[in-house]
Amino acid sequence: MGRSTLGMVLVFGVLAAVVWMVQTNRPAPVEGASTYVLQVDEGAVSRIDVTTSAGTAGFTRVEPIGWNFAESGQTADFSRVSSVVNRIAKLRAQAKVQDQVPNRAEFKLDPPLVTAQLTMKDGTTHKVLFGAQTVTSAAYYALAEENGILYTVSTLIVTDSQGLITNPPIPTPTPGTPSPVASPSATPSAIVTPPATTPTTTPGLPAPSIS
Fold first, then answer.
1. Structure pTM?
2. End-to-end CA distance of the chain, in Å?
3. Per-residue b or e along 130-161, where b marks 16 or more CB atoms closer than 10 Å to that residue's CB
4. What CA–CA distance (Å, rounded) separates 116 from 129?
5. 25-77: pLDDT as tens digits
């Protein structure tokens, strides 16, 4: 065997060994592992804006815990807003449909049924578009604009996102909490008119007239 042939054999042997080592050290795919449309740190979300044909609603995080309506600054229902934020930040996919969507209108993603935008504490944004229901009405089409991959997702996250607009998350008063007392200037007192009285007559004197 010539030196050149021997050298080639050694090179191929080294390459084969490297490939074997790479394949051996590569972690095996986890069966049943979740696939995400979007996966970001929900604790780093500072604001969420939801837009539908019915309007737009925005909510800003209040430290250490809480959410406010972005426009009015009033307190929003913490559990409802947090539930939507957490699920969109780690939006689980039911199934992958296709890698790219040349015609978004085909899936009612242009314009989308619902748009949810998360603004992070560092100023970066992540936008998710929700489109039409699937043929079986068991899921909605969705994609994250940063990668454009089309998935199907649970119907619940879509309806809950819409609910932030159609049914604003106003906190429910805690039982036993006194209702705010209106100031006297804000609520005028009722004007009470005394009942008419019949004058008492004195014997021998003319009865007074009632005007």
1. 0.69
2. 139
3. bbebbeeeebbbbbbeeeebbbbbbbebbebb
4. 7
5. 433 334 456 899 999 999 999 999 999 999 999 999 999 999 999 999 999 99
Beta strands 45-52 and 55-61: pairing type?
A: antiparallel
When pLDDT is cut at 50, 70 and 90, the band that residue 175 belongs to is confident
Which sequence spans correspond to the domains of the chain?
36-166
For tokens 């790219």, the residue is: 100
Asked if 66 and 78 touch (Cβ cutoff 8 Å), the reply is yes
Q: Tokens standing for 50?
A: 């939801």
Helix (H, G, I), strand (E, B) or coil at 148: coil
> Residue 34: which of 153, 115, 142 has the closest Cα?
153
